[in-house]
């Protein structure tokens, strides 16, 4: 059974999201290694979202409740967030709704800025990290690969993402009222990851020429050389920070990379801007809240940015939702068909066992004509064709139990339904 625990800008505070985003690898391992009935785990952690996707066995009748409680405890232990806080802020998605949810997330339909492009790459990298950790399963692989295919299809077939919609560009839209001339603006970028690359592109689209970059992890030189930027080393960071009109942070650092003390140290070197805007795109926060105590400094963080997110582009998002629904049906059809595979295998074994016994009896009576055996095997294949096709039809219609009942009534073959075919509640609060 697939299960997803999700916290995002829609149902959780940014303080909670910040705590949950500390180390996704640790959380992934805790979920996979710490719970006996979890056969796979992938964690998606972004600036506005924390989601744990689980492939679980069903050890008990109340499998979902047991799994949610165990997963909540594992996340709590890995992040230090109290279980009660998680229960009140995390939503649970299960069954077919997991595919629907992830496909919508990876396509940007659940983002602060609908259609933003970064999320597809973040989802893809989450799967890659799970592979590195050895925590994926065949069903999670299929789920995430289909999600990537769906997001690419939506990008190519709808208007979403066509204008480079992203949290980065929204932040710059909000900053526009504070910038007289983008071409004359001096910008310091702290970070060299995917958000930093998107930020450079967005700044240049606005005409910004003077962009410097600093990397807490020491990657500024290479990043700057490839993009014709100015690399800033640690000793020069304070002066560059106070010399810039705009400072944009987007690192994965666990501690703030910019605070009031750094700005004060820069101003002691004899330079400061009358007005300065700091944009914090990091989660955990890259900028300490005390920067606003420095005269002339204004802070624009993710929480503030999300409050100004534009309404959905209706036509494009409706088309995208339709494509998601189609992809979910296809994903579900494959899962449903697989749910009756043991029954079809059992029926084939039953028929071919009887066939082999009959062929042996014929041989014992002196019938060594190979044409008889060939004819019998052909007949068996013909007879099995219709039940195999009907198995797919019944599975897609959600009538697995009817098929299994008929199989037992006609042939005495008893096969338990696969867990994937059992109906589960779609969503609910993360309570036991």
UniProtKB/TrEMBL annotation:
InterPro entries in the cross-refs: 4pyrrol_synth_GluRdtase, 4pyrrol_synth_GluRdtase_dimer, 4pyrrol_synth_GluRdtase_N, GluRdtase_CS, GluRdtase_dimer_dom_sf, GluRdtase_N_sf, NAD(P)-bd_dom_sf, Shikm_DH/Glu-tRNA_Rdtase
* Tetrapyrrole biosynthesis glutamyl-tRNA reductase dimerisation domain boundaries: 320-413
Does the keyword field hold Lyase?
no
Q: Where is this site: Important for activity?
A: 101
Q: Where is the active site?
A: 47 (nucleophile)
Q: Which domain of life is it from?
A: Bacteria
Chain residues that bind substrate? 46-49, 111, 116-118, 122
Catalytic reaction annotation: (S)-4-amino-5-oxopentanoate + tRNA(Glu) + NADP(+) = L-glutamyl-tRNA(Glu) + NADPH + H(+)
**Further information:** During catalysis, the active site Cys acts as a nucleophile attacking the alpha-carbonyl group of tRNA-bound glutamate with the formation of a thioester intermediate between enzyme and glutamate, and the concomitant release of tRNA(Glu). The thioester intermediate is finally reduced by direct hydride transfer from NADPH, to form the product GSA.
Q: What is this protein called?
A: Glutamyl-tRNA reductase
Q: Which gene encodes it?
A: hemA
